[in-house]
Amino acid sequence: MTVVIVVLIHTLVAFLIDIRTRKIPNNWNWTVLICGLTYHVVNSGWSGLSFSLAGGLALLLVTTFLYTCGAIGGGDVKWFAALGSWCGVWFTMNTLVYTFLIGGTISVVILMFKGRLLNILKQWIIAIVCLLGDKKLSNLKVINQQPLHEIPLMIAALPAVAIILLMNGGQ
After folding, report:
1. Helices (H), ranges, the chain
2. Model pTM greater than 0.90?
């Protein structure tokens, strides 16, 4: 039950801060991550340490790649790593997948309401066809003709955490 409470607090605090400032503070994420490592070491010894480290490091690696691609922010990377230190690889990877599914759905709805969805899809299709045809990465510039509307990732992460917790029987 302690882990669920911490996960909910960690997620809710990050959500509220991200909505307001568009940043999740490093000191918050690192504190939660260190507490996750400590909790699992105290309660399960070396196996707890490996569980916690595996979760934190796996998500740190995956989300760092997403960060370098521009898909998420640095605070999001550390938020997922901190979540991984409490919940391990399975829970946190599933949360990541659900976060992107929910975030993608939200983005499509926003683009539909703004009347930009078809233009964005057309740009992507043109870029992919050009890329497949002559293999020039410069053709991907077509995609950036209309900037996309960005949403704070925690808008999608909050329901993703809730869904995974429910799928996990609240544990």
Report:
1. 2-21, 26-68, 74-113, 117-134, 154-167
2. no
